[in-house]
Amino acid sequence: MSTAVKNQSANAEAAPLSLPAILAYSLANLGVGAFYAFNNFILPLWLGNYTHNAMLKGILAETHSFEGAILQPLVGSASDRLRTRWGRRRPFMILFAPLSALFLLLTPLAAALPAPLRLGGIVACIFLSTLVFNFFIDPYQSLMADITPARQRGRVSGIWFLVGALGQVVVLLLPIPIVYRFALVALLMIVLTVATCTTTRETPTTIGITGEQDEPAIHHLSYWREMSAATRGLTTLRQARLFLIMYFCYGAGTSAVVPQLTPFIKSITHCTDDQALHMVLILMVATAIGGVPCGWLSDKIGPKAMMTLGVAMIGLAAINGLWVNSLPSVAIVLFFAGLGTAAQNASAYPLLTRLVPCEEIGFFTGLQTTALSIVGPVSVLVTGALINHYGERMIFGVCFVCILGALAVINRLRPELAAAEIERHLQLSAARNNAATTS
């Protein structure tokens, strides 16, 4: 058996995390949730003071940018092969979470610039904060696959997303001016990331301190050869390829709705900013309520079945969003969508970790973000253009079509075939490593 296979087997048999350990790992996600809620739901309202262009507001509220399509796999692969006394994931967290928070803090200061520079400064700060944030979040999410056994990842994901939903609730519910929420989100990101990094230990097999013999074959290649080998792995890892296509479709649907949701609620119901945020709060509460039960159920029935259920529920919510016209009807649709989001959250990443080698999970997490980095901005721009011409309800039509595409791809996914594909991929990687060494 190759060293890579041994490493994967060791990780798969890791002891389950205790509840305190799960909570310690999840702490930083409270700050992550606050960042997402602020970017997706509050920032568009604040940007309305400086621009009325739906396309620009949508692209700035989108938490993934085009650059991530190239940079995220590089960051993920770098976190796979990094070896420090702090592990391979935590250095990225410690560096990039505070840096993202810094750019977030600078955003309201940019609003005080002279008029010709104001919008440009705001755009630059938001862009840099979002870009750097993704350098932090992918290694952080990859850490979960490093420290948990496959059979527990649904429950861990459920608790992780529950904590993240609480962060979203906090930033949406507190009755403070929007400008002060910039500082609140930045503070939560810094303090809670430090707390997670100091209380969560990476396992020896992921830190790589036991010697050269514990290194996976692919990490003996040069950095760029490793990237090339991992990318070529998509030809062998058919199930992982299908997952990324499915996630591409799913991301297109959600990106059409999320950045435009609060402006849509205000436009359709003629409510206030606070009332629109309270509607979004219903979505967050439903996601929080469903997180842990969906995680437990995902471990019982399998992440593919749970993913299918969640995506289908989001599709049903989207089609019903085409005719809501009052706050109560919006509330019902958002609650149902929140339960679907909880099911998707609890199953998507555990499903990905079953389809790819453990020693390359950072790279494939980056590819997952690449899918969102490509389709997110495109979806936002297309939806923004449709809104400008046909009105806000277009967000739900675009979402429903994309969700149908995601369901079609999920139906073709066969997780039971992944183990053989992974073994074949690792054998090919070892063969290429031997060929590169002898040459």
What does this entry look like structurally?
By secondary structure, the chain is mostly helical. About 80% of the residues lie in helices and about 0% in strands. The chain contains 18 helices and no strands. It starts with a helix and ends with a helix.
Offer a few descriptive terms.
439 residues; mainly alpha; Growth Hormone, Chain: A; 18 helices; single chain
Percentage beta strand: under 5%
What is the CATH T-level topology?
Growth Hormone, Chain: A
Second rung of CATH, namely the architecture: Up-down Bundle
CATH class: Mainly Alpha
Mean pLDDT: 82
Record field, number of beta strands: 0
Structurally, the number of domains stands at: 1
Order of helices and strands: HHHHHHHHHHHHHHHHHH
Unreliable segments of 5+ consecutive residues: 1-12, 205-214, 217-221
**Helix share bin:** over 70%
Shape: globular
* Secondary structure category: mainly alpha
CATH superfamily: MFS general substrate transporter like domains
Main β-sheet, in a few words?
none
Cα radius of gyration in angstroms: 21 Å
Distance between the termini: 24 Å
Q: Helical stretch count?
A: 18
How would you concisely characterize the structure shown here?
The protein is mainly alpha-helical.
